[in-house]
Amino acid sequence: xxxxxxxGTKATTASIKAMxxxxxxxxKAAAAFINTVLGGAPIMQAAFPIVxxxxxxxxxxxVGTKVVDYFKKLEEAALGHGGR
Length: 84
What we know:
Blueprint: H1 8-19, H2 27-36, H3 41-80
């Protein structure tokens, strides 16, 4: 009998989340599926530097946008409170 790649508890939890419509919050189940059923681990390992770089670039863009927004709000507050 072949060994199970995913425990019964994980499979049950993923199934319940899917039935509740929580597809976006089910990344552990998706990762287990890709690795065990599709054999995607080697592909993901090879792609990780690219995926990681894209995620890092996205994070930098988000932080940069928030910093710019912060300083715009700071300037607006200064002008609105006697800074004219």
